[in-house]
Amino acid sequence: MQQSSERKTAARRDGRGALTAPSAYRAYALLVLTTMCWGANAVAGKFAVGHISPLLLTNLRWGIAGLVALPFAWPYLKRDLPVLRKHVLLLAAYGGIGFAGFNAALYSALNYTSTLNVVIEQAGMPGVIFALNFLVLRSRVRAAQLLGFLMTVAGVALTVSNGSLTRLLALDLNRGDALMLLAILCYGGYTAALRIKPPVHWLSFVTCICGAAWLCSLPLAGWEIASHSGIVPDIRGIAVVLFAALLPGLIAQSMFIRANELIGSNRAGIFVNMVPIFGALFSVVLIGETLHLYHLVALGLVLAGIALAEQRRAKSE
């Protein structure tokens, strides 16, 4: 099965080992749609505040996503079962850290900070991806990618500090911003680890990690309810759960996994920086949040980082 996957990957490359243009363009389209969904996810999470508690939202989201995917994935799950059994701990880590951990932190952060801060802070994910790929997987990180990452870090720092260097130097973060830093560590680690995912069909993979995320978030939701901080969803809460489960959850995650297969986690990871662009647009239009000058500067750094990393990479190939 692994050899078959390698042959398919080779077929998408030209004689010099570079990805053919159709495969790259397909990956770019998938990543743009993915980041649109994820930008909307942060806005949906803000709409959920007071209508469903964050940990219960995380649990219900992945439970529904897994149930919706199950009928479509069933034939592939039966075929891939021997491989899935061998990698059960890895699959549990994907779901528990990348899906449940990230969303629990993100939805909780939205109770303490603005949607604009949350979506722009997600631009720090590529830094985690680059660092883990280099330190753990010994992947080569190009100078242009590193420079693009540094530009996005500057944008994140500007956002976290609300444009105040004094606040940044004093490490004066509110609880929401601190939770978002935890969130990007979770999802950055998940994205970097996609390079070693089991050689199974993408539907098998997504369904398994949705199930793992649901199981791993059960204790969190239980603790939330037991501590009397849980909020049973009303109509708006239910609508947010369904939206988050289907679009940012099942559909966007599937597109992101496929894009990673086409162009690799380093290149796919830099597109996460488009989440702030869409998220900022949605938060201003739908929620009415104020877009400050430092937000605009941070978004400019994000866009420049993406353009630099991808332009230099394309020339090298």
Which features characterize this protein?
mainly alpha; 317 residues; 14 helices; globular
Straight-line N-to-C gap: 28 Å
Largest sheet: none
* Integer tally of domains: 1
SSE pattern: HHHHHHHHHHHHHH
Estimate the mean pLDDT confidence: 82
Rg, Cα atoms, Å: 19 Å
The structure class reads mainly alpha
Number of helices in the DSSP assignment: 14
Number of strands: 0
Percent of residues in helices comes to over 70%
Runs with pLDDT <50, length 5+?
1-17
Shape: globular
Relative strand content: under 5%
InterPro entries: Diverse_Substrate_Transporter, EamA_dom, EmrE-like
Transmembrane segments: 27-48, 60-77, 89-110, 116-137, 146-166, 178-196, 203-223, 235-256, 268-287, 293-309
Protein name: DMT family transporter
Pfam family, one: EamA
3D structure, described in words:
InterPro entries: Diverse_Substrate_Transporter, EamA_dom, EmrE-like. Pfam families: EamA (PF00892). The chain crosses the membrane at residues 27-48, 60-77, 89-110, 116-137, 146-166, 178-196, 203-223, 235-256, 268-287, 293-309. It is found in: Cell membrane. The chain is an all-alpha fold. The protein has one domain. The protein contains 14 helices and no strands. Helix 2 (21-48) runs antiparallel to helix 11 (235-263), helix 5 packs antiparallel against helix 13 and helix 7 runs antiparallel to helix 14 (293-316). The longest helix is centred in the first third of the chain and has 33 residues, at 54-86.
